[in-house]
Design a protein that fits this description.
The protein is mostly helical. The protein has 3 helices and no strands. The longest helix has 19 residues. The radius of gyration is 21 Å and the shape is flat.
């Protein structure tokens, strides 16, 4: 009941929210299919909010200055 209220409150405030309720699962996830789905949901969130279009810069690239050819 609390998860539905939290979801409704977030949506009421105009926030983006997603409520995922897995069948036959209570407070913890036990079924392999449920665990895999939870991992998939987490990966989707990470991809959406943490990945950027820019290529990551490695430490080696960041610490080297461009060479000047004469």
């Amino acid at each position: 009941m609390q998860r539905e209220r939290m979801y409704a409150a977030l949506k009421g405030l105009g926030k983006e929210a997603r409520l995922v309720m897995l069948p036959y699962e209570a407070h913890g996830y036990r079924a392999r299919k449920s665990l895999l789905h939870v991992l998939w949901e987490q990966e989707q969130w990470l991809d959406k909010y943490l990945l950027t279009d820019e290529a990551p810069v490695s430490d080696a690239q960041a610490n080297t200055e461009p060479s000047v050819s004469e």
